[in-house]
Amino acid sequence: MTTSSAVHSNAFNFMGFLQHCVDPRTGQYTVSVDIPELKTNHLCGPAIPLQLQFNPLNELDSGFGMGWNLNLSQFTPHNNMIALSTGENFKVTSSGEEPAIKEKKLDSFHFHNQGNDTYRVVHKSGMTEMLRLEGRLALPETLYSAEGYKIILAYVPYGSG
Q1: Of the four listed, 41, 77, 148, 159, which is most buried by Cβ atoms within 10 Å?
Q2: Rounded distance, CA 55 to CA 48, Å?
Q3: Nearest alpha carbon to residue 48 among 60, 38, 34, 56
Q4: In angstroms, what is the C-alpha Rg of the chain?
Q5: CA end-to-end span of the chain, whole Å?
Q6: What percent of the chain lies above the pLDDT cut of 70?
């Protein structure tokens, strides 16, 4: 038995970087494409694992096309939703310096309100993300590795902001 295709390419050897599925409950299609993680500080870290994700419910275009987004952590204070780079999404259910998140069953991260439109996410791995509010969305501004190395991220508005 042989396999045949009209095009020969080694690109098909890397299909593990593409994950896709149709949710049998809703019939909606989602896809994610793994991007090689960014190695920083001469490989001392923090390493940034990136993934480009498509969600048909996302009606915004953040520069990759409607519905596409990078998996960076983000917090939206107007609806108290936090989306982590790990893919988890939670509703923040209280206010204060360390707001409660009732849906969080595993102690995999801690979320802190630092004041001055700054938020801190401390992951169990030791990585810390400092999120800064720009408009209606708080995105990672500084990432710290468990060893204390850091990188600073900057953003450029796309389209209507």
Answers
A1: 77
A2: 21
A3: 38
A4: 18
A5: 54
A6: 88
User: 26, exposed or middle or buried, with CB in 10 Å at 0-12, 13-18, 19+?
Assistant: exposed
Query: Taking the complete model, does pTM exceed 0.85, yes or no?
Result: no
CA dist 87 and 73 (Å) reads 9
Query: What is the 3-class SS of 60-128, one letter each residue?
Result: CCCCCCCCEEECCCEEECCCCEEECCCCCEEECCCCCCCCCCCCCCCCCEEEEEEECCEEEEEECCCCE
Q: How far is CA 104 from the centre of its chain?
A: 17
**Phi/psi zone of residue 64: left (φ > 0), alpha (ψ -120 to 50 degrees), beta?**
alpha
Q: Which among 16-25, 64-73, 106-115 has the top mean pLDDT?
A: 106-115
Cα–Cα dist 9/12, whole Å: 6
User: In Å, how far are 5, 7, 8 from 2, measured between CA atoms?
Assistant: 10, 15, 14
- Three-state SS at 153: coil
The residue with tokens 């949710």 is 23
CA gap 140, 102 in Å, rounded: 23
Tokens representing 39 are: 């190695």
